[in-house]
Amino acid sequence: MLWKKSYLVVAVCIATCISIMTLSYLQRTKLFSISIPAAKFCSGIPARNTITPLKGNRTFIIAPYFDNRKNKMTRVISIVHHTEVKELYCWFCHPSKGEIYISKAEINVHSDRFDFPYAATDLECLEPEDWEPRYVSIHWSPTGDIDQLPLFEIRNRDPESSLVDFTVCISAMFGEYNNVLQFVQSMEMYKILGVDRVVIYKNSCSPLMEKVLDFYVAEGTVEIIPWPIDSYLSVSSYWHHSMDPKDIGYYGQITALNDCVYRNMYKSSYVLLNDMDEIILPGKYKDWKTMMQNLQGQHPGTGVFLFENHIFPKTVFTPSYRFNTSSWNAVPGVNILQHVLREPDRKNIVNPRKMIVDPKKVIQTSVHSVLQADGVSIYIPMDVALVYHCRTPLQENISRHLLIKDTTLWRYSVPLIGNVSQVLQQISWNGEGYR
Ligand SMILES: *[C@@H]1O[C@H](CO)[C@@H](O)[C@H](O)[C@H]1NC(C)=O
Ligand SMILES: *[C@@H]1O[C@H](CO)[C@@H](O)[C@H](O)[C@H]1NC(C)=O
Ligand SMILES: *[C@@H]1O[C@H](CO)[C@@H](O)[C@H](O)[C@H]1NC(C)=O
Ligand SMILES: CC(=O)N[C@H]1CO[C@H](CO)[C@@H](O)[C@@H]1O
User: Fold this and answer.
1) Pairing of strands 222-226, 197-202
2) 164-430 has which CATH code?
3) Rounded (10°) CA dihedral 261, 263, 269, 270
4) How close is the Cα of 57 to the center of ligand 1, in Å?
5) What is the pLDDT along the chain (435 residues), one digit of tens a residue?
6) How many other CB atoms are there within 10 angstroms of residue 285's CB atom?
7) Which of 392, 396, 400 to mutate to test the pocket of ligand 3 (most atoms within 8 A of CB)?
């Protein structure tokens, strides 16, 4: 009897040990796979929108990207509630092999959350070692019915060979945006400086702006990514939660920027992360290509180039403005050529920076710096280039004679005026004027 009892104890012990070992194995590798009937493979609901909510509205998937720079994994750019989402799984399905491979996601909420409850997040899932998944579903549990889950195509699986030099990412156009003249001027400046493509995450704009965007899309310069973030979350127009306590900061700008970097990782040698009222303006070189060849030559291994932001107040006009741009008078928006006086540096305040990055070296980006990268970041002195930023003043009461005249922009006045006039003419011909 006694002997039998100890036998039982040993058996229970062994069983416990095995399950603990199995559990710890699963936890350590965060991986396991299951086989389910063939009819169900890859039969989820194909995701068609830029932003896909998961059940419960606490996780929003933007897009999964293949990333084998460190491990063989899928990185899912997403937005999650930073405390309420504790567990997520990637379901990789093989269309013919008879396998669903489930991998526990590491939920990596970006540190630049600025106190908002929702933030840009990377869901990092190790992929199966012996096959290349093309589709993935994301679910809060390792069990469930794949038919009911949204199914995402994994991007960057087959990097495209058509490489361009420069892509500008505009992270969020919102608030019925109607600063048409400044937008067209920015676009034409980007083109003069060497842009190949401009990617715009568009939340909302005016009907006239819509016409302008249609023009640039038809021309092949602009790619629009719909960004209806306010259909799912309350959005702040400010960068910090304390300024406007909503769900997420600045229309989800940081998430859009990260998506843009990954989207263009194998399409563009460089990605510029700036707003549409900003132009990275070289002082020493005629265009971005010459500038980046020189900078990259001087700083091999650098992945992130940081340019100082300088404010050219749109409220202060330049008295010596002598260009005849009367044909633009009916166009709503700011004429940047009239604003070449910049605010001086402020004591004890560091000018924020905007960036040109080699997207292949970036892992996580924020707005004014990258959070994680493979290469180093360097500051570019303002005589080489600065960010020309025409907007409402930061130093509104400063006396005019303290503003610094900086006419670098005027070097481009001849092609800029010609090209802008041409675009505006075409846009007004296509419709009923600037309305
Ligand atoms: C998200 O919330 C809305 C309304 O609050 C609801 O109609 C919708 O079904 C939810 N979506 C998901 C995927 O849970
Ligand atoms: C400016 O150009 C317009 C044509 O675009 C012309 O009609 C006008 O006379 C010019 N104004 C001056 C001051 O040269
Ligand atoms: C500028 O001056 C006005 C009126 O004197 C004042 O209300 C405002 O706060 C000042 N702005 C700044 C940025 O100091
Ligand atoms: C895109 C475009 O029209 N660019 C033109 C801008 O203006 C310069 C000179 O005025 C032309 O050479 C470009 O072709």
Assistant:
1) parallel
2) 3.90.550
3) -30
4) 6
5) 444 555 544 444 444 444 444 443 444 344 566 655 544 567 889 999 999 999 999 999 999 999 999 999 999 999 999 999 999 999 998 878 778 899 999 999 999 999 999 999 999 999 999 999 999 999 999 998 888 899 999 999 988 777 999 999 999 999 999 999 999 999 999 999 999 999 999 999 999 999 999 999 999 999 999 999 999 999 998 889 999 999 999 999 999 999 999 999 999 999 999 999 999 999 999 999 999 999 999 999 999 999 999 999 999 999 889 999 999 999 999 999 999 999 999 999 999 999 999 999 999 999 999 999 998 999 999 999 999 999 999 999 999 999 999 999 999 999 999 999 999 999 985 555 565
6) 16
7) 396
Rounded to whole angstroms, what are the CA distances from 19 to 5, 14, 33, 227?
Answer: 21, 9, 17, 46
Q: What ligand 4 atom has the least distance to the C-alpha of 419?
A: 6
- Return residue ranges of the chain for CATH 2.60.40: 30-153
Q: Looking at the CA of residue 397, tell me the nearest atom of ligand 3.
A: 1
426 lines ligand 2 (CB under 6 A): no
Span(s) in the chain for CATH 3.90.550? 164-430
Query: What CATH architecture applies to the domain 30-153?
Result: Sandwich (2.60)
| CA–CA distance, 232 with 247 (Å, rounded to integer) | 10
Look at residues 191, 201, 258, 199 and name the one whose alpha carbon lies nearest to residue 230. Answer: 201
